[in-house]
């Protein structure tokens, strides 16, 4: 008898049983920011489809209501993640409603294009507040609940932070900083049972450009630039990014932490 193979098979079976039990047990509670449109909306719906209870956070009530349409597992929560005290209020609302928090998806972001010579303090502040400070403070506020439930943090970054992005360098820099936090938090929180991962979308068909004041002509030029740097030759969809987010939080991914997963049609490696 091959004892090593027998032991390996037993370990694999045990791992599979544990994963199945976790997956088929009580639904998790998931908090998704920037859930009114795009990737956030798709992620909220993907989690709800697997039976999780989702709190969808955004600044505007109407888009959040559309996110939750025909998805009874989604609860809209209108809040500005950059407001003073907002992280604590958001987490308290989740815990009051559901009694636990298992997954935090830091997705809310703004772009704010501009060249080095054009940036002003007034323009820089909202970018840092939304893309970097808010995820940090929200994760901090959620940490006790995540530790209690051996939860997962998913930070949504961008694959373009790994190359030059003229005219949008500050946005890319905030996402690169969030990836450093992802890796650092993964090591820091591993002993406490919390996993931290990131998903880095490339060119994805979302309205983020329009939401940040780009004209149709500017959006068109941006899309052309993105497609020219995407080997698969097309835009991704929010659902494709949401799939990656959900998969990284699954019990079967319980040995994955600190990873930044590009979902970008090959842009990173081109």
From TrEMBL:
Residues 1-25 are annotated as: Disordered. Keywords: Oxidoreductase. Gene3D superfamilies: NAD(P)-binding Rossmann-like Domain. One of its GO terms (molecular function) is oxidoreductase activity. InterPro entries: NAD(P)-bd_dom_sf (IPR036291), SDR_fam (IPR002347). It comes from the Bacteria. This is Ketoreductase. It comes from Streptomyces echinoruber.
